[in-house]
Amino acid sequence: MTKGLFIILLVGLVAACAPRGEIDHVPRAVAGAVDLRRVFVATNRNLAPEGDLELVRHDFGAARSRELRYGWADVSIPPTHEEGEIEWPGGAKPDPARHFVTRDGAPYPGKREFLDGLTSASQPGRKDVVLFVHGFNVRNAEAVYRVAQVAHDFDAKIPIVLYSWASAGRVRGYVYDRDSVMFSRDGLAQVLRDLASEGWRVTLVAHSMGAQLTMEALRQASIAGDEKSINALRGVALISPDIDEDVFVQQALKIEPFPEPFLVLVSKMDSALSVSAWLTGKPWRLGSIQDKTRLAGLPIKIVDLSNFRGGDRRKHITALTAPEAIKVLYRMERELARQ
After folding, report:
1. Cα–Cα distance, 180 to 189 (Å, whole number)
2. pLDDT tens-digit map of 114-130
3. How far apart are CA 149 and CA 311, in angstroms?
4. Does residue 322 sit in helix, strand or coil?
5. Per the confidence metrics, is the pTM higher than 0.85?
6. b vs e for 268-282, b when ≥16 Cβ sit within 10 Å of the residue's Cβ?
7. Is the pLDDT of residue 44 over 60?
8. What is the four-CA torsion angle of 107, 108, 111, 114, rounded to 10 degrees?
């Protein structure tokens, strides 16, 4: 890789990941927090080399694992929290009055305990869950805290599961992450299958390269005849999907029954996807598509966030960071919940 290309990548693709985040364990942090959000985690990441089985004290790393692991983390939200932001400590001492910190967390011994934990966190008689799939260049801690931020800002009433796939968590890991998408699709399909078998209704939300992973998992489930997993979906939302639109159409045509509602959130202002498109020699990616007629005939709804102000500077995660967009999507989610 040339120095010039690396600089372009560094400027364009670090969108959702600065500053780099780590899990800060502050017991009894809830005393200084305005909210406490439990994040459920299913991951195919190996523990970081210095780690052990304590989820909040030692984080999962970038190395891929053939087996799924499960855990949970309670993340406290500070009273000074601004909508769309993650208040990282940075170099300061973690302070629950000012920062996102983790109060507690642990691995589950296995899948059964993970599923039982979801049931315990749900309202009696309701089995709705959000499954969130993060994107490129994301560390596990960053994904966990993003889910907590989303749960708080959207006032989620149902549990959220993070599928934390083995991203390298670094800008120069783009090819590694593309390969990890293919490696991780079996794991995501398994999580969907497990939720469906327990009667959960799943809202599937994926960001950036996680949208490629999501489409691959859904395509795979459909080809395998796993209609139960597809029918368990109460909706799908792809946020700034880093997918070639031709590939997306081919993937979508293989998914039967096609889940509805199916939202694709796009922005022509997304500079991270502009770099990704340049790397592939195309004028845009699905998440920055300008000729929407190329998706004609598919039962999808395109939500254009190009003109929404605020949020991350590179407009790559506007849906979850721009207060104006959050309010619009909040209303859409509430309409879906009433169906």
Report:
1. 14
2. 999 999 999 988 899 99
3. 13
4. coil
5. yes
6. bbbbbbbbbbebeee
7. yes
8. -100
